[in-house]
Amino acid sequence: MFEARKEAILEVLNTWGTETLMKTLGIRYTDLGEDFIEGEMPVDGRVHQPLGLLHGGATAALAETLGSAGSSLHINREKQAALGIEIQATHVRGLREGIARGRARLIHKGASLHLWEIEVRDQNNRMLSHCKLTVMIVPLRDR
């Protein structure tokens, strides 16, 4: 399903982030499939902590962005919303500059909860963070 329309879906996903944290952090989606979604974020002063390293919060934002978007592709967006409710991130390596690339893999897809495992790596494929995201699927309410 995703493979045939992958480029069109990625184009739409990358327009969702205008005027959001995604734009501020420079996050963009790069690939997707039935059970995964990938994206990247430039590492520069915008996402540094005071020691000049990639901020763990920015890494978590990349991970949550990927998992939440991935869940939104598995629901009826006219009737439901995908909301990240818990994220766990273990940071294993710092990065001063370059690209942080995330790959979120769907490991549980229930009717009301999705569970994602996200690995964030640098441009040399070294792991920066290992994350787990729980996404709740909720009905949309009249606005």
List key phrases describing it.
143 residues; alpha+beta; Thiol Ester Dehydrase, Chain A; 3 helices; 26% helix
Order of the strands making up the biggest sheet:
1-2-4-5-6-3
Number of domains: 1
Classify the fold: give the CATH topology: Thiol Ester Dehydrase, Chain A
Shape: globular
Give the strand content: 35-45%
CATH architecture: Roll
Topology pattern, helix = H, strand = E: HHEEHEEEE
Helical amount: 25-40%
The assigned structural class equals alpha+beta
| Straight-line N-to-C gap | 31 Å
- Number of E strands: 6
Tally of separate helices: 3
Averaged pLDDT: 95
Q: Tell me the Rg in angstroms.
A: 15 Å
Q: Which stretches are poorly predicted, pLDDT < 50 over at least 5 residues?
A: none
Biggest β-sheet description: 6 strands, antiparallel
CATH class: Alpha Beta
- How would you name the CATH homologous superfamily? Hotdog Thioesterase
